[in-house]
Amino acid sequence: MSRYIGAIDQGTTSTRFILFDRRGEVVASAQKEHRQSFPQPGWVEHDPAEIWQNTRTVIGEALASARASPKDLAGVGITNQRETTLLWDSRSGRPLYPAIVWQDARVADRVAALTREGGRDRFRATTGLPVSTYFSALKLQWLLDHVPHARIKAEAGEALFGTIDAWLIWNLTGGAASGAHLTDVTNASRTQLMSLATLDWDPQLLDAFQIPRACLPRIVSSSAIHAEANVDELRGAPIGGILGDQQAALFGQTCFRPGEAKNTYGTGCFLLMNTGEHAVPSKAGLITTVAYRLSGERPHYALEGSIAVTGALVQWLRDNLRLIERSADIERVAREVDDNGGVFFVPAFSGLYAPHWRPDARGVIAGLTAYAHRGHLARAVLEATAYQTRDVLEAMEQDCGARFKELRVDGGMVVNELLMQFQADILDASVVRPRITETTALGAAYAAGLACGYWRHCDELRGNVQIARRWTPAMSAERREQLYRSWQKALTRSFDWA
Questions:
Q1: What is the CA radius of gyration of the chain?
Q2: What pLDDT, on a 0 to 100 scale, did the predictor assign at position 1?
Q3: Percent of the chain residues topping a pLDDT of 90
Q4: I want to staple 301 with a disulfide (CB 3.0 to 4.6 A). Which of 233, 243, 279, 366 is the partner?
């Protein structure tokens, strides 16, 4: 019997390959960062060829570390940064343009025009999504309109669109020679081209965004055997799981029941709640999305609040201001002070996502005095993540009509003890961190493992969950509300800049 499940975790800043055993424990892991390109203000791009090469590299490194081969894998799951959009030549396999990253705001003018013509929610009934720079449809439209010959090639099926999962699968299964062009329902639900009701590309949306169907991938379930890998690093391994990164984290946290929720703290912050087999429309500025679909079963849906900049703000403090040498230094520097000194940081670098949906917002630092120094700024950077999470959680409580008493957390930032305690304080709720924090990759592994029979059912996965730490509120109600009111004031100062 095969010993492991492999997971490709292709994120906004890096790519990882992780091997898991039957208990969901990490056996081996390798990671490699890729370049972030900012060619113009508000533009963010990645090199798809670099991402593909990094993927091959980390697969080889992790397998070598475990002294394993592709034959030791029962299956492979893939999870990826969502909404990031690319177009490639089906004959040569070369990208026609850099990947336009989910944070990119170059289509803001088109968002404004669509909003004026039909309102921000003109596509929400079909897709669950507001008009925004966030989603893939307008990015793809931009590529078709601006890349020479792209539209002609796309109409002929000679140029293929995909989010990063589709790009990796196509290359893993043979590329130009035999590559499978497919995506799963969770990633398709983030394009603003798929109907939540039919789980297929919607003809009216394709017309509205001027997208030729010939360039689109086939939509499949999140957990099913879709193809076999056809590259040396994974040759013969079944590809059985595909999930957008935040849905993968929900799955990895075993949030299989309606009402169960998690928050992932990464480049951005993403709070998802499983709503079961019913797509719940949001009235409070959230997204309705597909949570996952197991082979042969009805899909599960989720409410989601997406925050564009959280961990990325720590990187910005490191790389642009150089106030810290390593991202991990942020907690030590923030602990140099007892509070934020009245400083609030709203990181609206490319607008604000849920629940505000303000593409006109830009980042501001409010409350500065001569008293403030780098410790106060570092603390304000961390606190910005917690405040934005409360914004989303309150919107979710409005939509579901119930108050959260506990939040499951994962992602790179949850090792920051100061942030997690402040999160519990500002939410007035418990914050729970599992022992295995690689829940995004774990979710992709679980989906693949269920598909190939490595695990039998979801209850077996629940048995793997172990809690590592729980934070409970320790702040007075008066202090909590005073801070949150100041945050909301700073938030309004970020509006109407662009």
A1: 22
A2: 52
A3: 73
A4: 279
